[in-house]
Amino acid sequence: MTGFEITGASAADMELMRGWADEEGWNPGDSDRFAFAVADPEGFLVGRLDGEPVACISAVRYGAGFGFIGFYIARPAFRGQGYGIRLWDAGMERLAGRLVGLDGVVAQQDNYRKSGFRHAWNNVRYEGVPEGAGGGGDGDGDGVTGAGAGAGTTIVDAASLPFGLLAAYDRRFFPEPRAAFLSAWTGLPGRTALAAVRDGRIEGLGVIRPCSAAHRIGPLYAADPAVAAALLRRLARHAPSGLVSVDVPDANPRAAELVAGLGLAPVFETARMYTGPAPDLALAELFGVTSLELG
Fold first, then answer.
1. How far apart are CA 164 and CA 232, in angstroms?
2. Cα 119 vs. chain centroid, distance in angstroms?
3. Dist CA 19 CA 27 (whole Å)
4. 218-262 pLDDT, tens per residue?
5. Residues near 68 by Cβ (< 8 Å), separated by ≥ 6?
6. How far apart are the C-alpha atoms of 35 and 28, rounded to whole Å?
7. pLDDT, tens only, 124-134
8. Long-range contacts: 280-283, Cβ < 8 Å, 24+?
9. Where does the pLDDT of residue 146 fall: very low under 50, low under 70, confident under 90, or very high at 90 and above?
10. If pLDDT is split at 50, 70 and 90, which confidence band does 148 have?
């Protein structure tokens, strides 16, 4: 390990990590790193060999009791030499005493179990052009009743709602408050965040962002499949080609049925795992997770 050191990630390192994730086929968002840095500026670590970045990991703290591991990558030429496990240990040490979650490739489940993680569910990435979404482009009519969303349900620009309502709604789907992250995630340039509202209540929330390949939708929360379908179709209008992907938890069987029924096909799968009992989340209304990298 001579010449190997672990440091915090710089802005340039964050862009490098995005490129590595792209090479792994993860299709990261073009501007995800800006929201990630807001979540926990010190939560991104880089392993350097003689000054050259060769591995990375994120170990992001949320609130007082939760953390999430992501971006665990060693460059192909440096795998199997112990650099990755050194970073892993550093990331887990940073999250010591917390419930920790991750989304890992299914083939690595046994290795994560050795580190104390337990399987909770799988996230399956579905990709395609949703049936009924219409043509690509920047979308229109976001303030009118969403087709199929149910009588009295209106789809609006999420930015038009009091942010406190959005943060409280998001809290139902995440173990700790994450207001700063959510503000950046929904408001970065190039993204569209839509909410479904009925009688003054938020009944759904979805965000679409440009990526290297298909635009990714996440989170996708909805009171029922009809609201989820209306949001997904409307969000897809903001993808120039109409092609979108969404990471669907199999813990909500209605979610997989919905996206498959809209013509999307599975292309990738990860395992959501935790170091302790899975947190109590509104899984029946979770149709797409926010991010495989930060939860």
1. 23
2. 18
3. 9
4. 999 999 999 999 999 999 999 999 999 999 999 999 999 999 999
5. 58, 59, 60, 62, 100, 101, 102, 294, 295
6. 12
7. 999 999 998 86
8. 281/172, 281/173, 281/174, 281/175, 282/172, 282/173, 282/221, 283/121, 283/249, 283/251, 283/252
9. very low
10. low
CB neighbourhood size of 77 (10 A) = 7
151-174 confidence digits (pLDDT tens):
689 999 999 999 999 999 999 999
Strands 244-249 and 265-274: unpaired
Look up residue 56 and give its amino acid.
C
Residues 166-198 pLDDT 10s: 999 999 999 999 999 999 999 999 999 999 999
Give me 295's structure tokens: 């939860």
139: amino acid identity, one letter? G
Distances from the Cα of 143 to the Cαs of 167, 168, 195, in angstroms?
21, 22, 10
97: buried, middle or exposed (CB in 10 Å: 19+, 13-18, 0-12)?
exposed
Which tokens hold the place of 94?
């940073």
